[in-house]
Write a structure and sequence with these properties.
Blueprint: E1 4-11, E2 24-31, E3 38-47, H1 52-55, E4 76-83, E5 93-96, E6 103-107, E7 112-114, H2 130-141, E8 149-152, H3 158-169, E9 173-178, H4 181-190, E10 195-198, H5 204-211, E11 216-221, H6 225-234, E12 235-243, H7 264-267, E13 271-274, H8 284-296, E14 304-308, H9 313-319, E15 328-332
Parallel strand pairs: 8-9, 8-11, 9-10, 11-12, 12-13, 14-15
Antiparallel strand pairs: 1-2, 3-4, 3-6, 3-15, 4-5, 5-7
Helix pairs in contact: 2-3, 5-6
The chain binds NADPH dihydro-nicotinamide-adenine-dinucleotide phosphate.
Length: 336
Amino acid sequence: MPEITSREVHLISRPKGLPEVSDFEVTPIKLGPLQEQQVLVRNLFLSVDPYMRGRMNEGKSYLPPFELNQPMEGGAVGEVIESRAREFKPGDIVTSNHGWREFFMAPAKELRGVSRDIEPLSVYLGALGMTGMTAWAGLKLGEVKAGDVIYISGAAGAVGSVAGQLAKLMGCRVIGSAGSAEKISFLRDECGFDSAFDYHDGPVVERLKMEAPEGIDVYFDNVGGEALEAALSSLRVHGRIIACGGISGYNNAKPKPGPCNLFNMTTKRLTMKGLLVRDWADHQSEFEKEVGGYFKAGQLKHKETVVYGIENAVDAFIGLFSGQNIGKMVVRLRSY
Ligand code: NDP
C-alpha cells in the first residue's frame, strides 16, 4: 500500500463563546505502515455534535477535554481499506470514534462492523447511531407511555426528531419547538408531530399554554434556558423531565442562573432525570432491534443535513449553534 496522507482536524485554541474557524486547523499527516492487528479505515461520514463543544473547554466535564494540536474524536462511518486483524477485511463498513479525519489506523476492538445494506450509511451516525439511541434511551428513562403529552425542544434536530417520532409510535401526543418555519413543516408533515411552533415567535410558555392547555406530562429537554422554564410551568402534577441537553447555554462563558420557577419541582412533585447515552451501552442490541425495525419498516424517518468535505467540517459543527441543520448534521467525505 503506498504511503497515505490523511487530513485531520485539530483544535488549536480553546474557544471563548461561539467557536470560530480560527480555533481549528485542518492538517495533513502521513500514516505509517499498518501494524499487526491493526485496520486501516477511510472515513466516509463524520459526525459533528453539540456535546463536542464541552470537550473544547479546559477541564473535565463528563468526558476529558480535547487535547490541543491533536485530532479531535467523534463518531464516524468508514470503509476498511486494509486489514491485519482477522475480524475485518477490505470493503467492510465500520463505525468508530475516530472522526474528524480522513483515514486512520486502529486495533479491531475500536471498530464496530455494520451492515452495508442500509442507505444512507450515515444513518449509523443518526437514527441508528448515537443520537437515535439518545432519543430512545431518553424516552425509556422518562418512562414515557401511551397517552402522555410530551413536549420536545430542539425537536427538528438529530435527537429531537427521532424522539418525537418514537413517542408518536408509542401513542403519545407530541409537541415540538424548533427554530424556523421549514423545521416546523418538517415536524408536522414528515415526522407526524401533533403540533409544533417556532420558539422565536413569542414566549415559549405562552405557546405551550396554547398547544397544551391542560399541561404536559413529559418534557424532553435538548435546549435548557427558556424552554426548560416554560416546561416547568406547563408540567402537570407528577410530570417528568428528561434532561438530555442544554444547547442554549453551551457557549456561555459563565453559566446563567437556573430556572426562576424551579419550585414547581416541589409543588407539582416533578421528577427530573439526567440522561447520558453512554450509560445505555448494554442496551445496544435492544435499541438496534426496536429502532432498526422501525427504520427498515419505513416507520421512522432519518433526516440529515449533509456538508461535503473535511475542510468544511468545522463550519458544519459551528452551524449547529445557529440551527443550520434539519435532522442529523453529517459531513460526507467521499462516495461509496
Ligand atoms: P441537533 O441536531 O438538535 O442540533 C442542534 C440544534 O440545536 C440546532 O439545529 C438548533 O436548532 C438548536 N439550537 C442551537 N442553539 C440553540 C439555542 N440557543 N436555543 C435553542 N435551540 C438551539 O443536535 P443533537 O440532536 O445532536 O443534540 C440535541 C441535544 O441533545 C443537545 O443539547 C446535545 O448536547 C444533547 N445530547 C445529549 C446526549 C446525552 O447523552 N445526554 C447525547 C446526544 C445529544 P433550532 O433551529 O431549532 O434552534
